[in-house]
Fold this sequence. Notes:
By secondary structure, this protein is mainly beta. The chain contains two helices and 16 strands.
Amino acid sequence: MNKRRIRILLLIVAALSLLPAYLHAYKITGASEVPTVLVGDTILVNSAAWRLKLPYTNVTLLRTGTPRRGDFVRLRTKYGFKRILGLPGETIELRENRVIVNGSPLPLSPLHHLGTNIENEDGHWIMFTPGKDEHRNHPPTHLSPHEYFLLGDNRDDSIDSREFGPVSDDVFEGKVIAVFHAAR
Length: 184
C-alpha cells in the first residue's frame, strides 16, 4: 500500500473515531415539539454546529457558526428540544401564539389539509389551540447581545422561554440535523 492510501485510511479512521464526540442520537419522549417530531422519533444532533470543541471537553477550539432563527436545538437542561425564535438584540413578544419580532409578526399560514391547529410559521410547523394556553400571550422581551428566545413547536404543551426566560447559547448542546420518524 502506498503512503497516500495509508494517509487517507488514517484520516478516515481518525474522523470515524471522533464522530461520536460530535453527533448524538436522542429518542423523543415528550410532546413539546409536535408536529415537527412525535414521541418515539429519533433525532440526530450536531454538537459542533456552532463551536468545535476539543473532544469530550468544554474547551472551544473555534466558532463554526452562530445560531439562527428557526434552528431546532437540543438544550443541556431538562427542557430537551426547542426552536430558536428570538435572536440577540431583538425584542420578542407573543400575541395569541403569534411571534412578533421587533414589532413585526413572523409569517404564519394555516395548513388546512393537516388540521385546524397546525400552522406554518416562517418555514416550520407549529401547533396550538386558539385561546387555550395561558402562555399564548407574552409581553415584549428585549434580548441582550448573547440571549435567545426559545419556543416549543407545540405551543400548548411546552415549557420554554415564556416560563424560564431567554437563554445564552452556552446551554445549547447542538443543532438538530436529522429526524428519523418511528414506524407508525
